[in-house]
Write a structure and sequence with these properties.
The complex is a heterodimer of chains A (170) and B (147). Chain A is mainly beta. In chain A, 14% of the residues lie in helices and 36% in strands. Chain A has one domain: Hotdog Thioesterase (Thiol Ester Dehydrase, Chain A), CATH 3.10.129. Chain A has a six-stranded antiparallel β-sheet, with helices on one face. The model of chain A is unreliable at 157-163 (pLDDT under 50). Chain B is mainly beta and 147 residues long. Chain B has one domain: Thiol Ester Dehydrase, Chain A (Roll). Chain B has one helix and six strands; from the N terminus they run ββαββββ. Chain B has one helix spanning 63-77, and strands at residues 27-31, 34-42, 83-93, 102-111, 118-125, 131-141. Chain B has a six-stranded antiparallel β-sheet with strand order 1-2-4-5-6-3. Chains A and B meet through helix 2 and strand 3 of A and helix 1 and strand 3 of B.
Chain lengths: 170, 147
């Protein structure tokens, strides 16, 4: 199990964009199970209209994908990624074939079941499911993360990028 | 939302979201079989979520582009009520978006008469013309899919 301190030692994201609370199980090179509790204290609930109804408090799918990606990043980091990742940032490069079956709301705890499919040259491929209890929220067909140096992302680097079809960052 | 222009704190959404993508306007153009949606979203360093992504190096989370598309589709087809992401066939993040940049979203949205789903293809350009994101997805109103 990894607690919040151990998660922060691995991930560079911080409040309010650190979207993982606990890792409950990890098999390096294979899989990870990680949890995130959804609460109404998160910024995505900070400025809702008074007329917002209960079902519109569904947690944004975009943040669920990010949370899943953070679980995948921890698995990747614990699986012997052979790169010195100090000063480097993990970033989403591509996501494919995500299907949402249901939603989660404040009070729910999301569980990510992530499998590591491949690691190559600073890139990691993962897949899996997002659950709430026995209820499947989503299936993630493929998620590609890359590791990038901040200096390589600065504007002065724009003219030297390889081209619009090279997966870069997100 | 009340349609006011300004920072995140000035605008109220009718559904949970990490940013307000359409505070700066949305252009909806009817086309054969659907609608073309265009919007610009400035990347604001003061946006609350950017403080944690990342401390000392703020960069727009790629998933926020998915969120922007969702909000544009909601505004154009749901009269502001949330339209949910049902299937994300593909999203590719090709170039970073930093504070001071602007997302220019070009969205082609076509309702599928058989399923009521809204089929979306989108690309996000940076102000310098670089393609930052390409996306292909399916959206629909809450609860319809398994009704």
């Amino acid at each position: 199990m990894l607690d919040q301190g151990q998660i922060r030692a691995l991930l560079p994201q911080r409040f309010p964009m650190l979207l993982l609370d606990r890792v409950t199980h990890v098999e390096p090179g294979e899989s990870i199970t990680a949890c995130k509790a959804v609460t109404c204290a998160e910024p995505c609930y900070s400025n809702l209209s008074p007329t917002t109804e209960g079902h519109d408090f569904a947690y944004p799918e975009s943040l669920l994908i990010e949370s899943f990606g953070q679980a995948a990043a921890i698995l990747w980091f614990l699986s012997g990624m052979d790169i010195d990742r100090r000063e480097l940032l993990p970033m989403l490069a591509a996501v494919r074939d995500v299907e949402f079956d249901s939603t989660v709301s404040p009070g729910d705890t999301v569980r990510h079941e992530v499998r590591l499919d491949q690691m190559v040259d600073g890139a990691g491929f993962a897949s899996g499911e997002i659950w709430e209890g026995q209820r499947k929220i989503a299936t993630v067909g493929s998620l590609l993360a890359v590791i990038r140096s901040p200096s390589a992302l600065l504007p002065r680097q724009y003219p030297t990028r390889k081209g619009p079809d090279d997966d870069q960052t997100g | 939302m009340n349609g006011s222009v300004g920072g995140w704190e000035d605008v109220q959404l009718r559904y949970a979201a990490p940013l307000d993508a359409i505070a700066h306007g949305l252009r909806v153009t009817p086309v054969d079989g659907g609608r073309e949606l265009n919007l610009c979203v400035p990347v604001d360093a003061a946006e609350s979520y950017l403080a944690g992504h990342y401390p000392g190096f703020r960069i727009l989370p790629g998933v926020f582009v998915i969120e922007c598309v969702r909000q544009a589709v909601s505004a154009a087809f749901g009269d502001g009520t949330p339209i949910r992401l049902r299937q994300l066939s593909s999203v590719r993040f090709l170039a970073p978006l930093l504070p001071g940049d602007e997302l220019r979203l070009e969205i082609s949205a076509r309702p599928d008469p058989a399923t009521a789903a809204i089929m979306v293809r989108a690309r996000c350009l940076r102000a310098d013309g670089a393609v930052a994101t390409k996306l292909s997805a399916e959206f629909s109103s809450g609860g319809q899919r398994h009704a």
